[in-house]
Design goal:
Layout (H helix, E strand, L loop, with lengths): L5 E5 H14 L4 E5 L1 H5 L3 H10 L5 E6 H10 L6 E7 L8 H7 L2 E4 L2 H9 L9 E5 L7 E2 L3 H10 L4 E7 L13 H18 L3 E6 L3 H5 L8 E2 L3 H4 L20 E13 L4 E2 L4 E2 L4 E6 L15 E4 L2 E5 L8 E5 L12 E5 L4 H5 L10 H7 L6 E4 L3
Parallel strand pairs: 1-19, 2-3, 2-10, 3-4, 4-5, 5-6, 6-7, 6-8, 8-9
Antiparallel strand pairs: 1-11, 11-14, 11-18, 12-13, 14-17, 15-16, 16-17
This protein binds pyridoxal-5'-phosphate.
Pyridoxal-5'-phosphate binds next to helix 9.
């Protein structure tokens, strides 16, 4: 476990982001997406805060294991939890987990649907169906909607509690006639078909972060934001100006300088004897791939007290060398704090490697390993 290297999560900033979200979609119920350990921020503390302070009552995760863990940890609290994709390799063998823990499987194939409809115990759980409207990843085929209606009626069901679908291109500009618009039209056709066949659709959602940021698909009862609530925009860098999102990163990833020293141009540094590109200063920071600071960010730039540094050579397991083209050793106080990203949304974009492998903010968050403690503060 690290001590001085930590992810400091400011819950008041999460509250601020939530207020901002509500101003963008005041009429929608929020399904707060907390899969992958709440995008690296810590599942239980984030959900507890959202429940108790933000009055969020519905959450989305990817796997049954995540949902089940939440129920075990927060069993005394009342909330809805949806499992979006990994409902289970063998859905049937997990029947009890869903029923006993009141977890809602998002049904996205006919086999699971048939199983669920045959089992009367599932009548007590909300019925949630996901359709493939064009992302082509998961979901009941749009063409099967008649068959689904028949199956529902045969089992005595006349209501879908939640109907959903997922956009494939919401991080790109949403245009009339573009892929999102096409998907949304298909979604509305499916919804209309159910209604005209006498199947009530109680709730529905399509908008993830990208759609919310562009004000799209907000006529449904629910929205399903993930990334934006943690701070960053989910839009591609090339179209960030289209985003209405002005949130702040709820986390700050901080480490410190273990050692710093002057180098001459050409001097060997670290594993593989990587040569310093110029005269300057190297700062060794206490963060490596063992912390999830991926070697893929080799060559990336990091800012410290306004000075631009470059990761020199490979990221090590426990530390990383950052080169600054300056002779001013006083730039670094011994053991001083070094911030990888702070609360400014721009920070997560800066820490990236132009022209090399692109790493999206989702991945930067999710990479962080258990070695980095998550510390929760309230700063306002
Ligand atoms: C992950 C996920 C979301 C949230 O996506 P963001 O881009 O983080 O907002 C919404 N819906 C489903 C089904 C998901 O799997």
């Amino acid at each position: 476990m690290r001590h001085k290297t930590k992810l400091v999560v400011d819950l008041d900033l999460l509250a601020g982001n939530f207020d901002l979200l509500k101003s963008l979609c005041p009429l929608n119920t929020v399904i707060f997406v907390v899969k992958a350990n709440a995008y690296g921020h810590g599942l239980v503390p984030i959900v507890r805060f959202a429940l108790e302070e933000l009055k969020v009552a519905e959450f989305g995760v990817a796997t049954l294991g995540e949902a089940s863990y939440l129920r075990r940890k927060l069993g005394h609290l009342d909330f809805k939890i949806y499992v979006f994709s990994d409902t289970n390799l063998d859905f049937q063998s997990c029947e009890e987990a869903y029923l006993d823990q009141n977890i809602i499987p998002v049904v996205s194939n006919k086999t699971d649907l048939d199983f669920l409809l045959k089992n009367r115990d599932f009548f007590d759980l909300p019925l949630c169906l996901k359709f493939n409207t064009g992302m082509n990843r998961l979901g009941l085929p749009v063409e099967s909607v008649e068959e689904v209606v028949e199956a529902l009626k045969k089992s005595g069901r006349t209501r879908i509690n939640h109907l959903m679908s997922q956009f494939g291109c919401a991080s790109l500009p949403i245009t009339d006639g573009g892929p999102c618009a096409k998907q949304y039209n298909r979604f509305m056709e499916v919804k209309d078909f159910f209604k005209s066949s006498g199947v009530e659709v109680e709730g529905s959602s399509m908008a993830n972060s990208g759609a919310i940021e562009q004000g799209f698909a907000l006529n449904e009862t629910h929205v399903r934001p993930g990334l934006i609530l943690y701070g960053p925009s989910s839009l591609n860098k090339s179209c960030l100006e289209l985003s209405r999102w002005k949130g702040r990163n709820i986390s700050q990833l901080e480490t410190y300088i273990i050692n710093s020293f002057v180098v001459e141009k050409g001097q060997a540094v670290g594993y593989g004897g990587i040569k310093a590109p110029d005269d300057g200063v190297v700062a060794m920071i206490a963060l490596g791939y063992g912390d999830g600071f991926s070697d893929r960010i080799m060559g990336t730039t990091l800012r410290h007290k306004g000075h631009l540094g470059t990761i020199l050579g490979r990221v090590n397991m426990d530390m990383t060398q950052v080169f600054f083209p300056t002779a001013d050793l006083t730039l670094f106080a011994e053991k001083e704090k070094f911030i990888i990203w702070g609360h400014d949304p721009q920070d997560l974009l800066n820490y990236s490697c132009e022209g090399q492998v692109q790493m999206i903010p989702y991945e930067k968050f999710c990479h962080l390993t258990q070695r980095i403690p998550r510390i929760y503060v309230r700063c306002s």
